[in-house]
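Hello,

Our lab assistant flagged a job as stuck in the queue for most of the afternoon. It eventually completed. Since we weren't sure the result was trustworthy after the delay, we are filing this so someone can double-check. Below is the sequence as submitted and the structure that was eventually returned. Let us know if re-running is recommended.
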Amino acid sequence: MKEIHKILVSQPRPASDKNPYSELEEHYGVECDFHQLIHIEGLDVHEFRKQHIYIQEYTAVFMNSRLAIDHFFRLCQEMRLQVPEQMHYYCISEQVANYLSKYIQYRKRRVFYSEHNRFEDMIPSLKRRTEGKMMIVMSNVHSDDVINSFTKHKLTLTPAIMYRTVVSEWPKEKPLDHDMIVLFTPTGVAALKKNFPKLKKEGKVFACMGKQTIAAMQDWGIEPDIVAPTPEFPGITSAIKHYLDHLS
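-- returned structure --
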């Protein structure tokens, strides 16, 4: 196994110093370099209207992140649109649901969230609610798994693209001198490939979070060294710790 001194984490730096990556640095003497390979751009009103989605006609909106909430209300404001009073808000988690209070009077609206971070858990209750139209706020790069699971239960969930995921250009003055590269999304893999098309596995250790990220790496011709989630390692940092513990 290759010695690890510097790790590229393709995410923003955590707000708190107490995080799993600082524990890696303290325990193993490695340096974690946080650098996003992608960034988010909001669709403008003209682009959104091309989808022929009229928010006033909907009675429910699904939010999978705080980012989705921000762009939903941003577009409503830019379109000078008053969100319908009867709107229901379905959120992927309690944390996302709580974030709605930035834009609405939480207690005066109907807000629901999944306790297990799965929209699919809400399907039984939604099947009893036959009236109204539902949309889900999404990026241009997304999985259709949620939409497909709703379709199987004869529920229609309209994807509303409100922001896009864009590849960030790697700074020319910054070398890719990392021993390990940690990737979290297929788009992140695509961004790494675009910035470094001749990158080879030799000399690098690759850690991937999520089945689709792993598949994207394999499609590139690079087999990841560290993967998560697995029954043993639900998170990527625990998998990295296991790898570092077994370095010879």
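-- support follow-up --
The delay was a queue issue, not a problem with the job. The result is valid. The chain has two domains: 1-37+168-195+237-248, 41-163. The chain has a mean pLDDT of 92.
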